[in-house]
Write a structure and sequence with these properties.
The chain is built from 11 helices and 12 strands. It is an alpha/beta fold. A 7-stranded parallel β-sheet has the order 3-2-1-4-5-6-10, sandwiched between helices. Helix 6 packs parallel to helix 8. The chain is globular, with a radius of gyration of 19 Å. The N and C termini lie far apart (about 40 Å). Bound molecules: (3R)-3-hydroxy-L-norvaline. (3R)-3-hydroxy-L-norvaline binds next to strand 7.
Protein backbone atom coordinates (compact mmCIF):
# COMPACT_ATOMS: atom_id res chain seq x y z
CA UNK A 1 0.00 0.00 0.00
CA UNK A 2 1.05 3.63 -0.53
CA UNK A 3 1.90 5.77 2.52
CA UNK A 4 1.95 9.59 2.40
CA UNK A 5 3.38 11.45 5.38
CA UNK A 6 2.74 15.17 5.79
CA UNK A 7 -0.71 14.67 4.21
CA UNK A 8 -2.07 18.03 5.42
CA UNK A 9 0.70 20.06 3.78
CA UNK A 10 0.70 21.97 0.51
CA UNK A 11 1.98 19.03 -1.60
CA UNK A 12 0.22 16.27 0.35
CA UNK A 13 -3.20 17.90 -0.09
CA UNK A 14 -2.91 17.43 -3.86
CA UNK A 15 -0.70 14.34 -4.09
CA UNK A 16 -3.12 12.19 -2.08
CA UNK A 17 -6.14 12.68 -4.39
CA UNK A 18 -3.83 12.07 -7.39
CA UNK A 19 -2.48 8.82 -5.86
CA UNK A 20 -5.99 7.68 -4.86
CA UNK A 21 -7.13 8.29 -8.43
CA UNK A 22 -4.28 6.05 -9.63
CA UNK A 23 -4.40 3.24 -7.04
CA UNK A 24 -7.83 3.52 -5.40
CA UNK A 25 -8.68 5.25 -2.12
CA UNK A 26 -8.21 2.28 0.19
CA UNK A 27 -4.67 1.69 -1.13
CA UNK A 28 -3.40 5.17 -0.18
CA UNK A 29 -2.81 5.85 3.54
CA UNK A 30 -2.75 9.55 4.42
CA UNK A 31 -0.95 10.44 7.63
CA UNK A 32 0.12 13.58 9.45
CA UNK A 33 1.11 14.46 12.99
CA UNK A 34 -2.08 16.51 13.32
CA UNK A 35 -5.71 15.45 13.12
CA UNK A 36 -7.21 16.26 9.73
CA UNK A 37 -9.77 19.11 9.86
CA UNK A 38 -13.31 17.98 8.85
CA UNK A 39 -13.73 18.07 5.08
CA UNK A 40 -10.01 17.83 4.28
CA UNK A 41 -9.51 15.82 1.03
CA UNK A 42 -7.18 13.42 2.93
CA UNK A 43 -10.26 12.20 4.85
CA UNK A 44 -11.82 10.78 1.68
CA UNK A 45 -9.75 7.63 2.33
CA UNK A 46 -7.77 6.00 5.16
CA UNK A 47 -6.26 8.63 7.48
CA UNK A 48 -4.18 8.16 10.63
CA UNK A 49 -2.13 10.42 12.87
CA UNK A 50 1.53 9.40 12.66
CA UNK A 51 4.63 11.01 14.17
CA UNK A 52 7.63 10.30 11.89
CA UNK A 53 10.04 11.13 14.73
CA UNK A 54 8.79 7.99 16.55
CA UNK A 55 10.89 5.29 14.86
CA UNK A 56 9.33 2.20 16.47
CA UNK A 57 5.78 3.43 15.79
CA UNK A 58 6.72 4.17 12.18
CA UNK A 59 8.19 0.69 11.59
CA UNK A 60 5.12 -0.90 13.19
CA UNK A 61 2.92 1.17 10.83
CA UNK A 62 4.93 0.05 7.74
CA UNK A 63 4.62 -3.63 8.76
CA UNK A 64 0.96 -3.47 9.86
CA UNK A 65 -0.14 -1.78 6.62
CA UNK A 66 2.29 -3.61 4.29
CA UNK A 67 3.66 -0.29 2.99
CA UNK A 68 5.28 -0.79 -0.44
CA UNK A 69 5.76 2.88 -1.46
CA UNK A 70 6.16 5.94 0.78
CA UNK A 71 5.96 9.61 -0.23
CA UNK A 72 7.66 11.26 2.74
CA UNK A 73 6.41 14.86 2.73
CA UNK A 74 6.48 15.59 6.48
CA UNK A 75 8.87 18.52 7.04
CA UNK A 76 9.27 21.93 8.63
CA UNK A 77 9.75 24.48 5.82
CA UNK A 78 12.37 27.24 5.54
CA UNK A 79 11.02 30.22 7.48
CA UNK A 80 9.57 28.14 10.34
CA UNK A 81 12.81 26.11 10.50
CA UNK A 82 14.74 29.32 11.19
CA UNK A 83 12.39 30.05 14.07
CA UNK A 84 12.54 26.47 15.45
CA UNK A 85 15.83 24.91 14.22
CA UNK A 86 15.96 22.08 16.81
CA UNK A 87 12.42 20.90 15.98
CA UNK A 88 13.18 21.23 12.26
CA UNK A 89 16.26 19.00 12.61
CA UNK A 90 14.23 16.37 14.47
CA UNK A 91 11.40 16.32 11.94
CA UNK A 92 13.44 16.80 8.76
CA UNK A 93 16.37 14.50 9.54
CA UNK A 94 15.39 12.12 12.35
CA UNK A 95 11.98 11.69 10.73
CA UNK A 96 13.62 11.00 7.35
CA UNK A 97 16.08 8.52 8.89
CA UNK A 98 13.19 6.65 10.53
CA UNK A 99 11.38 6.45 7.18
CA UNK A 100 14.49 5.22 5.34
CA UNK A 101 15.15 2.60 8.04
CA UNK A 102 11.55 1.33 7.96
CA UNK A 103 11.58 1.28 4.14
CA UNK A 104 14.90 -0.60 4.15
CA UNK A 105 13.49 -3.25 6.51
CA UNK A 106 10.29 -3.85 4.53
CA UNK A 107 11.72 -3.19 1.05
CA UNK A 108 9.57 -0.14 0.19
CA UNK A 109 10.22 2.42 -2.59
CA UNK A 110 10.67 5.97 -1.25
CA UNK A 111 10.07 9.52 -2.54
CA UNK A 112 11.68 12.38 -0.60
CA UNK A 113 11.34 16.01 -1.71
CA UNK A 114 14.40 18.20 -1.63
CA UNK A 115 14.26 21.89 -2.55
CA UNK A 116 16.02 24.79 -4.20
CA UNK A 117 16.84 25.52 -0.56
CA UNK A 118 19.53 22.80 -0.83
CA UNK A 119 21.70 25.48 -2.45
CA UNK A 120 23.34 28.45 -0.74
CA UNK A 121 24.88 31.87 -1.40
CA UNK A 122 28.12 30.35 -2.82
CA UNK A 123 26.22 28.25 -5.38
CA UNK A 124 26.00 29.57 -8.99
CA UNK A 125 22.51 31.13 -9.05
CA UNK A 126 21.57 31.78 -12.63
CA UNK A 127 21.24 29.01 -13.63
CA UNK A 128 22.01 26.60 -10.77
CA UNK A 129 23.40 23.37 -12.28
CA UNK A 130 22.29 19.84 -11.29
CA UNK A 131 25.71 19.03 -9.77
CA UNK A 132 27.29 21.98 -7.96
CA UNK A 133 28.40 23.45 -4.63
CA UNK A 134 25.78 23.06 -1.88
CA UNK A 135 26.54 25.18 1.22
CA UNK A 136 23.09 26.42 2.32
CA UNK A 137 23.06 28.76 5.32
CA UNK A 138 19.51 27.96 6.49
CA UNK A 139 18.69 25.06 8.82
CA UNK A 140 16.07 23.89 6.32
CA UNK A 141 18.73 23.90 3.60
CA UNK A 142 21.15 21.96 5.82
CA UNK A 143 18.45 19.30 6.37
CA UNK A 144 17.77 19.18 2.62
CA UNK A 145 21.44 18.61 1.71
CA UNK A 146 21.89 16.10 4.55
CA UNK A 147 18.66 14.42 3.43
CA UNK A 148 19.87 14.18 -0.18
CA UNK A 149 23.14 12.60 0.96
CA UNK A 150 21.39 10.19 3.36
CA UNK A 151 18.99 9.08 0.60
CA UNK A 152 21.86 8.52 -1.88
CA UNK A 153 23.66 6.51 0.84
CA UNK A 154 20.61 4.26 1.37
CA UNK A 155 20.38 3.80 -2.40
CA UNK A 156 23.99 2.68 -2.97
CA UNK A 157 24.66 0.99 0.42
CA UNK A 158 21.34 -0.86 0.83
CA UNK A 159 19.91 -0.81 -2.70
CA UNK A 160 16.89 1.17 -1.48
CA UNK A 161 14.90 2.61 -4.43
CA UNK A 162 14.72 6.16 -3.08
CA UNK A 163 14.21 9.11 -5.47
CA UNK A 164 13.89 12.86 -4.95
CA UNK A 165 13.12 16.19 -6.59
CA UNK A 166 14.45 19.64 -5.70
CA UNK A 167 11.08 21.38 -5.81
CA UNK A 168 11.06 25.10 -6.66
CA UNK A 169 8.51 27.38 -5.03
CA UNK A 170 5.14 25.64 -5.45
CA UNK A 171 1.94 27.54 -6.22
CA UNK A 172 -1.43 25.97 -5.45
CA UNK A 173 -4.96 26.87 -4.38
CA UNK A 174 -5.97 23.76 -2.41
CA UNK A 175 -3.94 24.13 0.78
CA UNK A 176 -2.73 27.27 2.57
CA UNK A 177 1.06 27.74 2.46
CA UNK A 178 2.94 26.44 5.52
CA UNK A 179 5.89 28.48 6.74
CA UNK A 180 7.82 28.76 3.50
CA UNK A 181 9.66 31.67 1.92
CA UNK A 182 7.90 31.27 -1.44
CA UNK A 183 4.50 31.54 0.28
CA UNK A 184 4.01 35.04 -1.13
CA UNK A 185 3.25 33.42 -4.51
CA UNK A 186 0.31 31.58 -2.96
CA UNK A 187 -0.97 34.28 -0.60
CA UNK A 188 -1.01 36.89 -3.38
CA UNK A 189 -3.83 35.08 -5.20
CA UNK A 190 -6.07 34.77 -2.13
CA UNK A 191 -5.50 38.49 -1.40
CA UNK A 192 -6.08 39.48 -5.03
CA UNK A 193 -9.48 37.74 -5.01
CA UNK A 194 -10.49 39.03 -1.58
CA UNK A 195 -8.95 42.53 -1.33
CA UNK A 196 -7.57 43.30 -4.83
CA UNK A 197 -4.31 44.20 -3.08
CA UNK A 198 -1.35 42.36 -1.52
CA UNK A 199 1.56 43.43 0.70
CA UNK A 200 4.51 41.27 -0.34
CA UNK A 201 7.23 40.27 2.16
CA UNK A 202 9.89 39.91 -0.59
CA UNK A 203 11.40 42.75 -2.67
CA UNK A 204 9.90 43.30 -6.16
CA UNK A 205 12.98 42.02 -8.02
CA UNK A 206 13.47 38.75 -6.03
CA UNK A 207 13.71 36.16 -8.78
CA UNK A 208 12.95 32.55 -7.73
CA UNK A 209 12.25 29.28 -9.60
CA UNK A 210 8.54 28.45 -9.38
CA UNK A 211 6.08 25.77 -10.48
CA UNK A 212 2.31 25.27 -10.55
CA UNK A 213 1.26 22.37 -8.30
CA UNK A 214 -0.27 20.25 -11.12
CA UNK A 215 3.18 20.18 -12.76
CA UNK A 216 4.85 19.25 -9.44
CA UNK A 217 2.41 16.38 -8.80
CA UNK A 218 2.86 15.03 -12.33
CA UNK A 219 6.67 15.29 -12.04
CA UNK A 220 6.58 13.38 -8.73
CA UNK A 221 4.52 10.52 -10.19
CA UNK A 222 6.55 10.42 -13.44
CA UNK A 223 9.84 10.19 -11.51
CA UNK A 224 8.52 7.37 -9.31
CA UNK A 225 7.36 5.45 -12.38
CA UNK A 226 10.56 6.05 -14.39
CA UNK A 227 12.83 3.18 -15.43
CA UNK A 228 15.48 3.09 -12.63
CA UNK A 229 18.13 1.94 -15.14
CA UNK A 230 17.92 5.39 -16.79
CA UNK A 231 18.49 7.33 -13.54
CA UNK A 232 22.08 8.56 -13.25
CA UNK A 233 20.94 10.93 -10.49
CA UNK A 234 18.51 10.07 -7.69
CA UNK A 235 18.59 12.55 -4.83
CA UNK A 236 17.74 14.91 -6.04
CA UNK A 237 16.78 16.18 -9.50
CA UNK A 238 16.61 19.93 -10.14
CA UNK A 239 13.05 20.68 -11.28
CA UNK A 240 11.54 23.91 -12.54
CA UNK A 241 8.84 25.33 -14.82
CA UNK A 242 9.53 29.08 -14.80
CA UNK A 243 11.23 31.75 -12.69
CA UNK A 244 9.56 34.99 -11.71
CA UNK A 245 9.77 37.99 -9.40
CA UNK A 246 6.95 39.40 -7.24
CA UNK A 247 6.72 42.35 -9.65
CA UNK A 248 6.30 40.04 -12.67
CA UNK A 249 3.67 37.97 -10.84
CA UNK A 250 1.76 41.12 -9.85
CA UNK A 251 1.85 42.35 -13.48
CA UNK A 252 0.51 38.98 -14.68
CA UNK A 253 -2.37 39.17 -12.17
CA UNK A 254 -3.12 42.74 -13.29
CA UNK A 255 -3.72 41.43 -16.83
CA UNK A 256 -6.81 39.71 -15.35
CA UNK A 257 -7.55 42.15 -12.50
CA UNK A 258 -6.51 45.65 -13.64
CA UNK A 259 -7.42 47.11 -10.23
CA UNK A 260 -5.02 44.84 -8.31
CA UNK A 261 -2.48 46.83 -6.24
CA UNK A 262 0.84 45.40 -5.00
CA UNK A 263 2.66 46.84 -1.97
CA UNK A 264 6.01 45.77 -0.43
CA UNK A 265 7.04 45.39 3.21
CA UNK A 266 10.25 43.36 3.04
CA UNK A 267 10.71 40.79 5.83
CA UNK A 268 14.51 40.77 6.33
CA UNK A 269 14.57 37.12 7.45
CA UNK A 270 12.70 35.72 4.49
CA UNK A 271 14.46 38.15 2.10
CA UNK A 272 17.83 36.84 3.31
CA UNK A 273 16.65 33.25 2.76
CA UNK A 274 15.38 34.04 -0.77
CA UNK A 275 18.61 35.90 -1.62
CA UNK A 276 20.60 32.74 -0.80
CA UNK A 277 18.62 30.60 -3.24
CA UNK A 278 18.88 30.02 -7.01
CA UNK A 279 17.34 32.57 -9.38
CA UNK A 280 16.91 29.97 -12.16
CA UNK A 281 17.50 26.19 -12.24
CA UNK A 282 19.05 23.96 -14.92
CA UNK A 283 16.74 20.92 -14.96
CA UNK A 284 18.32 19.22 -18.01
CA UNK A 285 19.14 16.07 -15.99
CA UNK A 286 15.41 15.54 -15.25
CA UNK A 287 14.61 16.16 -18.92
CA UNK A 288 17.24 13.70 -20.15
CA UNK A 289 16.92 10.92 -17.56
CA UNK A 290 13.12 10.63 -17.18
CA UNK A 291 11.59 12.95 -19.80
CA UNK A 292 10.56 15.89 -17.61
CA UNK A 293 8.59 18.67 -19.43
CA UNK A 294 6.66 21.46 -17.63
CA UNK A 295 3.17 22.34 -18.89
CA UNK A 296 2.40 25.59 -17.01
CA UNK A 297 4.32 28.84 -17.51
CA UNK A 298 3.69 32.03 -15.48
CA UNK A 299 0.76 33.13 -17.67
CA UNK A 300 -0.97 29.73 -17.72
CA UNK A 301 -0.52 29.26 -13.95
CA UNK A 302 -1.89 32.73 -13.15
CA UNK A 303 -4.93 32.27 -15.38
CA UNK A 304 -5.76 28.86 -13.88
CA UNK A 305 -5.18 29.95 -10.27
CA UNK A 306 -7.53 32.94 -10.61
CA UNK A 307 -10.18 30.83 -12.37
CA UNK A 308 -10.08 28.00 -9.79
CA UNK A 309 -10.14 30.39 -6.81
CA UNK A 310 -13.06 32.34 -8.34
CA UNK A 311 -14.95 29.06 -8.94
CA UNK A 312 -14.38 28.00 -5.33
CA UNK A 313 -15.49 31.40 -3.99
CA UNK A 314 -18.72 31.04 -5.99
CA UNK A 315 -19.34 27.55 -4.57
CA UNK A 316 -18.70 28.71 -1.00
CA UNK A 317 -20.83 31.83 -1.43
C1 LIG B 1 9.83 26.98 1.33
N1 LIG B 1 8.10 26.33 -0.27
O1 LIG B 1 9.60 28.13 0.97
C2 LIG B 1 9.29 25.86 0.45
C3 LIG B 1 10.32 25.45 -0.56
C4 LIG B 1 11.48 26.34 -2.53
C5 LIG B 1 10.98 26.66 -1.21
O2 LIG B 1 11.24 24.59 -0.02
O3 LIG B 1 10.48 26.72 2.30
Amino acid sequence: RVLVTGALGQVGSELIPALRGLYGSEEVLATDIRRAPPGHPALEGPYEQLDCTNGPALLEFFVRHRVGVVYHLAAILSARAEAEPQLAWQVNIEGLHNVLEAARQVGAQVFVPSSIAAFGPSTPRDPTPQDTLQRPNTLYGVTKVAGELLCDYYAHRFGLDVRGLRYPGLISYTAPPGGGTTDYAVEIFHHALRYDRYTCFLAPDTRLPMMYMPDAIRATLELMQADPARLRHRNAFNLTAFSCTPAELAAEIQKHRPGFKMHYEVDPLRQAIADSWPRTLDDSAAREEWGWRPQYDLAAMTKDMLEKLAERALKEA
